[in-house]
Design brief:
It is elongated and about 85 Å long. It folds into three domains: 189 residues, Serine Threonine Protein Phosphatase 5, Tetratricopeptide repeat; 118 residues, Tetratricopeptide repeat domain (Serine Threonine Protein Phosphatase 5, Tetratricopeptide repeat, Alpha Horseshoe); 72 residues, no CATH class. The two termini are 13 Å apart. By secondary structure, it is mainly alpha-helical. The protein has 21 helices and no strands.
Length: 460
């Protein structure tokens, strides 16, 4: 797992990152002639959950509300204003308050009063700390979290871990953060379990260990954390050390979706529409995409846009598909930029404009979408809106191959003769320059060239 793919959450909500995501991808540039492979391109998702270590409302997505360990009496004003969804010991019958919705001053007044009246009720101390944290009074919050932790309150241990993790009220210290998270996890705090999983997943403060990460994610998921359910699925889908199991990944994504995670909904929809890890189910995919779109998930906007644009399991509606592509692109989804570029390239959904297509492909490439690498290579090879440049075409194709774009690999294996001879020679020259190919630079993509391409495929 890449160490930048995500970072920690304090809120019960998760950011959408994440990430370095390939959801329902664009069709590749369609300028090749007499293709021997289908022009449609759909890659199973490789979607990292979002990456944010703040509780900012713009960077969060839903996790299931953790059920309290036991009923513990009627709620006070402090509970109504500051009960934490991640706190197993909050009052059972009072709706929890998301961090972004917390009214810090009002909660602090109510919780300070409640704590003064009942100093032995530890959740009031914890909730007073939470109110201070919302107001960025990190030192005051940390003092109260420590007070609650000294008396054994589990959620307070996790909050202290988060403070060390993010340098809030104390110097940032990953070792201390992990120590406090472990103490909280041993007290059955699902949020701390998730963050321990993240530390092992990303190699923060410890050696990267996907098996340990998966174990903590599963433990956190048992405590109701939908983000952990999603991340367990992601590890099972993409890990290079834990045996991959796309069927099990699909089950975790669906569980995460059912628990309320917009990221899980999107990943579940991606698997369902592609038939990954089980049979395709376009209706269920459509339902999950729509729910995730309602939650503001940009990757789901792209996925739903693709279904509408292409008429996958739904009446074709290019105008609505394009609207969603643009909304997804505005929300940071790089693949949507590629999809918009494709519409400009083909004139399907937009007025045909190759220069505009190339502009969107460049933007998508800058944002990390690997399908755009392929399409830019095609434009340089064919001289579409730019001067033909076989060296640049080869450079972009190498990027696509190294990024693991299966369509590009298939093109080089099965459709190489639809690319120019000068391009093929330029790609061979690049491979030879890296001592990956020692055959003739003649544009003939025989076994030696194919072996060299295999040598770089999926290897950054």
């Amino acid at each position: 797992m890449t160490s930048t793919r995500r970072s920690l959450l304090r809120s019960q909500l998760a950011r959408l990152l994440p990430i370095a995501a390939l959801s329902i991808c664009a069709l590749p540039a369609a300028a090749q002639t007499t293709p021997k492979t289908p022009t449609g391109y759909a890659m199973p998702p490789r979607m990292a959950p979002p990456a944010a270590n703040t509780r900012d409302a713009a960077s969060i997505g839903t996790v299931e509300t953790v059920k309290p360990a036991a009923g513990n009496g009627g709620g006070s004003a402090c509970d109504r204003l500051a009960a934490d969804p991640l706190d197993h010991d909050r009052v059972k019958d009072v709706p929890a308050v998301e961090f972004d919705a917390l009214d810090g001053p009002a909660a602090q007044t109510a919780c300070d009063a409640a704590s003064a009246e009942a100093p032995n009720i530890l959740r009031f101390i914890y909730q007073s700390a939470r109110a201070r944290e919302k107001q960025k009074n990190y030192t005051g919050a940390l003092d109260l979290y420590r007070k609650a932790a000294r008396r054994g309150y589990p959620a307070a241990f996790a909050a202290i871990g988060y403070a060390y993790d993010n340098g809030e009220g104390v110097a940032q210290d990953e070792t201390e953060a992990m120590r406090w998270y472990l103490d909280a996890a041993q007290r059955n705090n699902a949020f701390a379990m998730f963050n321990l999983g993240y530390f092992y997943d990303s190699g923060r403060g410890v050696a990267e260990d996907d098996a340990a990460a998966l174990d903590w994610y599963i433990k956190s998921a048992a405590g109701g954390n939908a983000r952990a359910m999603n991340d367990a699925g992601f590890l099972l889908e993409t890990s290079n050390t834990v045996p991959r199991n796309v069927e099990e990944a699909r089950r975790w994504y669906i569980r995460s979706a059912e628990a309320g995670s917009a990221v899980g909904m999107t990943n579940a929809a991606n698997f369902l529409v592609n038939g990954t890890g089980g049979p395709a189910d376009t209706q269920q995919a459509l339902d999950w995409y729509r729910k995730a779109v309602d939650a503001g998930n940009a990757d789901a906007m792209n996925g739903l846009g693709n279904m509408l644009y292409s008429g996958i399991g739904v009446d074709k509606d290019m105008a609505e598909g394009m609207r969603l592509y643009h909304k997804a692109a505005d929300g940071g989804n790089a693949t949507a930029l590629t999809n918009i570029g494709y519409a400009y390239e083909t004139g399907e959904g937009e007025t045909k404009n190759l220069a505009e297509a190339m502009s969107f492909y460049r933007r998508a490439a800058e944002a990390g979408d690997s399908i755009a690498f392929n399409n830019i290579a095609n434009f340089y090879d064919k001289g579409l809106s730019v001067n033909a440049d076989p060296a640049l075409a080869a450079e972009w194709m190498e990027k696509a191959l190294r990024a693991g774009v299966t369509f590009s690999r298939d093109q080089m294996r099965d459709n190489a003769d639809t690319w120019s001879l000068s391009f093929r020679k330029a790609l061979q020259q690049r491979l030879a320059g890296q001592k990956l190919y020692s055959g003739p630079v003649d544009g003939g993509f025989g076994p030696q060239t194919q072996a060299a391409i295999d040598g770089i495929f999926g290897r950054q």
